[in-house]
Amino acid sequence: MAEIEIGLGKSGRRGYSLAEVSIVPSRRTRDADEIDVAWQLDAYQFEIPVIAAALDGVTSPSTAIEMSRLGGAGALHLDGLWCRYEDPTSLLEELATSGSDTSTERLQAIYAKPVDPELIKVRVGEIHDVGGTAVVAVTPQTTEDLLPHIIAAEPDLLVIQATVTSAEHVSAGAHQPLDLKHLVRRLEVPVLVGGCTSYQAALHLMRTGAAGVIVGMGPRTGSTSRRVLGIGNPLATAIADARAARMRHLDETGVYVHVIAEGGIHTGGDIAKAVVCGADGVILSSPLARAETAPAGGAFWPMSASHRSLPRGRVRKVDPVGSLEAILNGPSHRSDGRTNLIGGLRKSMAVAGYGTLKELQKADLMVTAPPSVVPGQQWA
Fold first, then answer.
1. C-alpha torsion angle, residues 283, 285, 291, 294 (rounded to 10)
2. Residue 61 contacts by C-beta under 8 Å, 6 or more apart in sequence?
3. Contact (Cβ atoms closer than 8 angstroms) between residue 292 and residue 303
4. Where do the domains of the chain lie, and which CATH numbers do they carry?
């Protein structure tokens, strides 16, 4: 891709958000009822390509169970309130009623309580007891400390996720940095790692032996990471870069690593465009926070919002639009695409003429918007 001169001493690539691209239909159309949106991650088969984000306002043990029933999965954050408090209901209700008025200091105080390792096994057990797929998430900083308890709990999938996750962390400090390659290869549980926003970062994460790589810097809504840190990459370009890294890794090793996109994905059309760019699945936050049974009543916040020294983000509040099932599988009574996301994905695939997600990845894209930075566009 040609670089654009920013000034006499610096140039950069032009990046594209999902809002700036559209899927080009093929020569055929299909019946939406015959579209297959299933995907497989390691040994686990999912009927829909959606994982509920590892945010306390989005995923609780009951949400994870419901997501499994609906064909997807929910990632429960082990650094979150469900593993700090035996019953965080009152705190979630407080955050739901205060919404965006919640102070950063209050969030920091709530998350000051240490993680209770015993609750990890309890939460995973709650999901397993009803036949759900237990997906748990942890930050790189706490992975080694919690690892014995994670192994004892026997989750189905482990997510190691931060704003930006790298395969190599350089440190001159006293603490030994997390060696992702060593960690992933000594675990029996499949591991997803991320976020990342570049070709090189994705390739190095794939070389750790991870089953999947998360592309994006976490949820876009409510997060101020891009503004505070000054880093990011428009999501369509970030996914396409990770796709190229996957192709190289596949050529080198014969191993296919899944790409999961996160950040600013709101409709079935957004999911479809993410798949065309190269994603196998997506992680959703604000769309699922709109469920009537969302843990915090429509309030949600990035995990970085409670960081002790550099908080990035705030509590956001969205209005309920229906049940979790209606948001994912319909029926919809809205015309904005916020409900029946999988129906929107199926219809997009049917109109474009692709029967499976793997086929959809071969579709062509057209850039439909001029270079601009528009409010709400999808960034990784």
1. 110
2. 76, 82, 123, 126, 127
3. no
4. 16-169+177-304+318-367 (3.20.20.70)
Query: Tens of pLDDT along 339-372?
Result: 999 999 999 999 999 999 999 999 999 998 665 5
Residue type, 253: T
User: Per the confidence metrics, is the pTM higher than 0.85?
Assistant: yes
Alpha-carbon separation of residue 266 from 128, 346, 352 (angstroms): 29, 15, 20
pLDDT at site 209: 94
Rg of the chain over Cα atoms, rounded to whole angstroms, equals: 20
Neighbours of 249 (CB within 10 A): 20
**From CA 331, how far away is CA 123, in angstroms rounded?**
31
CB 64 within 8 A of CB 74: yes
Give the helix/strand (H/E) hosting 244: helix 235-253
β partners of residue 364: 24
Distances (CA, A) of 62 to 72, 107, 133, 169: 13, 23, 12, 35
Pairing mode, strands 21-24 and 212-215: unpaired
Tokens 């919640």 correspond to 102
* C-alpha neighbours within 13 Å on the C-beta side of residue 233: 23
Please give the Cα distance from 140 to 193 (Å, whole number): 9
Q: How far apart are CA 16 and CA 369, in angstroms?
A: 9
Cβ burial, residue 333 (10 Å; 0-12/13-18/19+): exposed
- Condensed to tens digits (0 to 9), the pLDDT of residues 125-163 reads 999 999 999 999 999 888 889 999 999 999 999 999 875
What is the bridge-based pairing of β-strands 73-77 and 39-41? unpaired
